[in-house]
Amino acid sequence: MLDLTNPAHIVGAVLIFLGLAVLLISAIGLYRLPDLYLRASAVGTSAGLGVALIVVGALLIDFTWPNLIKAIIAVIAQLLTSAVGSMAIARSGYLHDSPPAAITSPDELRDTRRDDVEV
Amino acid sequence: MNSWLTWPVRMIGFLLWYAKEFLLANLQVTADILRPSARMRTDPAIVAVPAASRTASEYTLISSLVTLTPGTLTITYSRDHAVLYVHGMFAASRDGLAEEIQEMEDRLLRAMRREPGDLSRPLARPTVRPAADAAAGAGDRADDRTGGASAGTAESEGTENDAGRPAGGDA
Q: Which residues, other chains included, contact B154 with Cβ-Cβ below 8 Å and sequence gap of 6+?
């Protein structure tokens, strides 16, 4: 139960709201950023931070040693999968000719293509 | 021997440094997303960064850490050419972004390796040619993995990077 006289619970609640704010800003970023790569790099991992903050907040509100171990595993797995997922999305996007926004300059990966496909 | 003993200290030092960079990058990206469009500083670029990593695990770690940092993203890498292809969100200058990535790699490798070894590599973009063309001496276009993929086993050592890109580079 949330007990607002307990400092750990207050910090936990603050972290959960901070995590929510990070997730909300990431969602706004999805609309505002122009291409796949910017979205994957900015949003994918910020969302990872948002979930990690919520997990740590929940841990502080309901602290037990088994929960600590679960939270550590959850945070590591979340950060790892969001990084690998972002890379997989960006890479498959590039291989399938999803063009980076026109403001992307220089694009030194594009120069490694042998063909002269106009994207 | 001594380097074994300092390993945990070096790793913790690196993780603290990385946590600081991670939070700063988060703040920077957050601020940019919330800024009005006219003043958004987004200036993306995809840069070929010469890498000092050698083993598959070093490449895996550095590309994951670069991707985990908001605002930078490893799209792919080539072990044969020792290059990381990094998409940066705030790449005002190409060299600035490449320096940032190389600094992170330096710190990671110093923390990870028993002996850091030779970490020197150029900052400038390498000239990358397809293996087949380079062997024939007839590559007028800088090319990377399309060469590895279409030439089959010409670059057989780079299984990670070449096997994973069947026809994409040729699409």
A: B130, B131, B132, B135, B147, B148
